[in-house]
Amino acid sequence: MANNIEQSVYFQRRKNAGALIVRDAPKFDLESYISNYEDRTRLDRLITIGCTSTYLSIDAFHAAIAEAKQGKDTDIYMSIVGCLQQIVPEDPLSMPDLGWVEQRMKQIKAETDRLEHELKQYKNNLIKESIRMGNEDLGAHYQSIGDFNAAYKAYYKMRDYCTSPKHIADMSLKLILCSIHQRAWTTVQTHVLKIQSQSLKAEDKAKIDPILSACLGLAYMATGHYREAATAFLQTKPEFMTGGPAAGVTWQRALLTGNDIAVYGGLCALASMDRAELQNQVLGSSSFRNFLELEPHIRRAVSLFCSSKYSACLETLESYRTDYLLDVYLQGHVAPIYGAVRRKSIVQYFIPFACVTLEEMGKAFSSGSGVPIEEELVDMIQNGTLNARIDLVNRLLLSPPSHPRQDVHDSALKMAASYEHNLRLRLLRLNMLNAGLELRAPKNTNAGAPQMHGGMEGYEEGMAGGSRLRMSRG
Amino acid sequence: MADVASALLSFPPDAQALSSLQHVEYDRQIRSYINVLQSIPLATLAKAAGIQNDLLELLDPSINSLAYIYVLTAQIHASSVKSTKIPDAHRPDGPFWLKLSDFLVTCDPIQMRYAGELWRRLLEYIERITRFFRAPLAGIPLICAALLRLDPMTGTLTSNHLNYIRLCLEARMYRHALPILDNPISGFPTAPVSGATNAVPCADHSVSSAWITSRSGHSDKIEISHVQEYFLLGAMIYLGLEKYPQARLFLEHVLTSPAQGVASGMMVEAYRKWLLVGCLIEGKTPESPRTVNSSALKVLRSTSKPYETVVEIFQNRDMPRLQADVDAGAELWRNDGNLGLIRTLLRALPRFYILNLSKTYAAIPLPSVARLLNLTPSDAHAYIESLIASGHLNGRIDYPIAPDAPAVLRFFDAGAPDGPLARNESQQLAALVAQMARTNELAEMVKAADLRLRLTREYVEYNRRRKGKKGGVGGGGDVGGDAEMADPGLADVDVGDIGDEDLMGDLH
């Protein structure tokens, strides 16, 4: 079955385009996994799995079609059906339900008209609160049909009619969710900052802060700033998992679950922090512990890293690679994060040693890709990640010997020499200026060249006439 | 005759009197003595010598130096009146030449400060003889010794410097130019500043430009083109001796010479050589010194495109392209006189490959190096051995005991105590001390330059205005007071830093 799917038109095309295809079965159960999510992110995640996993593709698309049919977004329904058709053309669900589409489009049209008409009325009445709510309704409507651009605009129009910091915070939260769906990560960051600068009531703040740090972490991770992402995720309070809806959205279901926070935060921290930081800020953090409890293997990986069992740590991560490759936000970052963890492990592993045999290194960090460890090490040395040198003859990795006294002397000599060089240049120039020696345009421009060769005249000619030698009198 | 002799011998006073003589008094005496000398007709001096050859025997060149030089010049003059050819008696190793050379190495340099023009003409005459008889081996060391006799630092650029360097270059006696070239130039013959302290030439001056002035006659008029030529020719000599860092400094002197947005032909030539030399030293396009006039630099760049291309290819370590480019431009390099340098560059490319390897590897079998360099193992072996021998590579070739195992190239890092380039504690100390001495020497030059700048009209004007602004009473003439205010200038900040912090701190 899986083989058939891999041979299907859709996956062949993906393969040719060099896109990611996951062939192994993940550890999770699709149904229980997806039941944690609702709304748009549920659809997004199903589509991601359907598009990449040959193992779960059909199940995921079936679930996605059922989900899409409950919603109002006809475009995404058509594209899902299109994908499914390329994978299993004979599947009954792969025939688009055009009647439903037509009916939905009519409904949507009527709804849009109604909402816009209402908004116009509110505007005529000049009641701020009504206008704000009218815009909000319109935004929500656009969001539900998948037109995030229009939704963003509608939400943004609420700005002028907000009367309290709470209103602004709610609006910004909606804009954040909208931007996340659009994958506009920098906008997410600006809106997070905007809410943070508002003076909210303590209770609102306690409710919104965890959401903000989760969103910020996601935005940093998506843009590849793993260290900042880790910091943001680690600051996320456990209230995130239990908090009620904010701005009409249940964030722990509509965007990220507590499990996601644990995985994202743990991986980003592993990729970017050193052992002491991991120990203090990840394992030792009382708030992040709540998240880690949901994903014990991440906790295990971090503690393995901290106790210098690097190969076991890498193995643990490796066993979950498939799962993470099927995560909608993590997908593109698995390779760089794993690579960073691996490189860090190698560096950390090597710190206590003066020399290690390459064989030993290869054993400790066996790579699945079949690239010999020494090539990896050469790359790391050349781009400055690993401060070591390789002895190809005895097949050793050597730590650089340090000669602090000699080094200080050398650097002093070097600096003094460069000072001397510059000083001499400047001093001579200054003296020349002082002596009125300056090259001026245009009379002297060509004076140099003939002079140059003047000195090379033939030997025998000598100086012209001895009569030049005269006594000076007075 | 006897009158003349006694007049000639009237100066200097005997050693005892001389030691108690103040500078100012000495100055007065020597000037009146010069007047006496000048009043003796040339013919008398020359004839007296010509007939009996007595005067030169009578005078001690190391004591009666002034009189001696007057007599010498008179004799040269007399011979040149007779014929335009140089008399055979003046040929190197002839009797007259011996007197000349004896005089130049033993004369009293203080007295020579007062006979600048005669001194210069004498040197020019020796240069003429050297060229005429094609005897550079006799002439060049003599001129060098004479230059050093007059001013052991040779820090003031005179026309004699330039003539000497030209001569060395023509005769291909590069090494003989080093004693002069290695001394930094700290000043130029300028009009003497009135009112400066210690103005008499015979006083103890830290820099020779205090008494080599535009009026002292030690030098012909020095123009900017002479300065540039001196440094360009000097750089060529350094290049000939493969002393690249020094060559680079000299070329940068040419490039940074003050220019009002224009460049001379010599600057173009210097720029091209400088690109190549910088590349040889650093392996990449060198960073231009900050004091280069930017519009002049633009002109230089636009005229040297082929050179910039070569350096860029070098930087990418692209051997085949470099070879192709060098071959394509062979005519150009030859016409510019840079073919040798370009060839050196071509040979230097693999060196940078190997230096890069030393950052990654501690030891690597020779066959692997050869493969990376695209050379046969034996070629690679020879090349690496030459690099190690020339001190470019801190490494060693090891031969394993097993008969069929390949030889191994082992790298050492800069501070390693067991590498071939390792320096022991005392060598290191010597290097630091030498650097410190150079720095102190520079500090002296900075002080002298500072003093000279304080005496300029502009600075005095500036100070007067500044004082006026403050509403102070002080007039403009109080140079000494102003100088103190200007103390946190070059001398104390820049050089003080090098000397005190960078070197002294490390010696503890």
Automatic annotation (TrEMBL), chain A:
Coiled coil located at which positions? 105-132
InterPro entries xrefs: PCI_dom, Rpn7/CSN1, Rpn7_N, WH_DNA-bd_sf
Gene3D superfamilies to which the protein is assigned, alphabetical: 1.25.40.570
> Cellular location of this protein?
Cytoplasm; Nucleus
Q: Which SUPFAM superfamilies match?
A: Winged helix' DNA-binding domain
Identify the keywords attached in UniProt to this record, alphabetized: Coiled coil, Cytoplasm, Nucleus, Signalosome
Question: What is an example of a Pfam family matching this protein?
Answer: PCI
| Complex formation | Component of the COP9 signalosome (CSN) complex.
Family to which the UniProt record says this protein belongs: Belongs to the CSN1 family.
Protein name listed in UniProt: COP9 signalosome complex subunit 1
According to its UniProt entry, this protein's organism is: Coniosporium apollinis (strain CBS 100218)
TrEMBL record, chain B:
Q: What domain of life does the native source organism fall in?
A: Eukaryota
What the entry lists under SUPFAM superfamilies is as follows: Winged helix' DNA-binding domain
- Region Disordered, residue ranges: 467-498
One BP annotation, GO: ubiquitin-dependent protein catabolic process
- List where in the cell it is found: Cytoplasm; Nucleus
Q: Where is the PCI domain?
A: 340-429
Q: Where are the transmembrane segments?
A: none
Bias (Gly residues) occurs at 471-480
UniProt xrefs under InterPro entries: COP9_N, CSN3, PCI_dom, WH-like_DNA-bd_sf, WH_DNA-bd_sf
Sorted alphabetically, the Gene Ontology cellular component annotations on this record are:
COP9 signalosome; cytoplasm
Q: Which UniProt keywords apply?
A: Cytoplasm, Nucleus, Signalosome
Family per UniProt? Belongs to the CSN3 family.
Protein name according to UniProt: COP9 signalosome complex subunit 3
